[in-house]
Fold each of these.
Amino acid sequence: MELKNKEDIKPLCPHCSTLLSELWFQKLKGFWGQRYIYFCGSCRKVLGVSHRKGFWMG
Ligand SMILES: [Zn+2]
């Protein structure tokens, strides 16, 4: 599989198919520590969770 860098097009939200021109995130704190959840700014469905800011599914 080839990996191609595409900076000129915007990814689509898998839930509402809106262009993800921006990605929203929220910092959560709980017994597990600190987590960042990333979600679509249009439908607000969660796209991923990370324990580090700016790091997908990490
Ligand atoms: Zn969406």
Amino acid sequence: MSRFRLTVVISQAQGKHPQRRALEEAIVTALFGDPRFEVSVIPHLYDLEADHPARLFLQSIRGDLVVLGWLYPRAIFWVLDRDGVRGLWGETRLKLPEPAETGESPAATSAESQNSNSELPPADKLRPPPPDRYIYCLDLRDAEQAEPFVAEIQRIYKEAAARAAQQQATKQPLLAVGLRIRPSQNDAGEANGQPDALAFSAEELLRPPNRRWYPVIDYSRCTNCLECLNFCLFGVYSVTADGLIYVNHQDECRKGCPACSRVCPEHAIIFPEYKSPAIAGANVGGIDGLKIDLSKLFGGADALKIAAAERDRELVAAGRQAVGMTVGIPKRQAHKPPAPKDELDKLLDQLDAAEL
Ligand code: SF4
Ligand code: SF4
């Protein structure tokens, strides 16, 4: 029986950043030559255009996948989803959680909430189910040294290998990894003795993309209310033939503007490069046992006014008329009750401290 191999992809930092590059290289060096891992390096995931070889490469991967990048894990997961790289949320344990008083595993609780099919949010019901494989996302900002990442990848390997062995035992083999990296552009590429159409050289994979800016929808939260579609006056959002909201014209979004994330009643819109962690995809809604009024992290009572002002600024910059609050301002859905003031203040302090 051939040995199970786990695909690990490192999404590089934008630009030249020696410390970040050093961490990326240290992780590659630690895993390189280890037969358990198939390791690849790609440019910054968020910037990949539809025809970038690295994106085609990601789409060709079958089986479980670990992706490390300079974004919040939730942002990595939903950028991948938007790029057609779908799977179930793989719970990671880079930051060890506090022991739960109930004795219930926090990993199991969180994985349940991400993957449960019984209570899919409305938008997710309109989408085909994800493939039966797990995608583990790690934020490279979470540690300065390679060791914690390597230890976590080794832990994930055991989990994924055990799952693969179980699937083999039940005659449902895990899909094989369907990619290869060519040593150079001159190598024609071969897989199992056959020419491999999806083989890319390292140079092709690392072709630097231009920087991009666009919203990403977290379909585990989205209710398909279409408020973002009504609010955006730049034609970024569309609906599919089945009526599902999606980000259609990504590059029509105005660089630096996060306006529609403040309008979304479910806080399902992520701008992975925005400076505020809540809008950039920090999992602030998933903090154990802490019920918070998420809207405060998106502008609070003034969120709609802030969003309208941000939209006006972009309309005027594009030579159009400002519209203020007269167009596409949604009627907010009822909010959950806010948390006690001291809990929320503590969280906001933590988020401010984490702001990059
Ligand atoms: S506003 Fe939010 S919840 Fe509503 S459709 Fe858009 S992303 Fe989904
Ligand atoms: S940030 Fe502005 S331009 Fe971009 S999608 Fe949202 S509303 Fe449209």
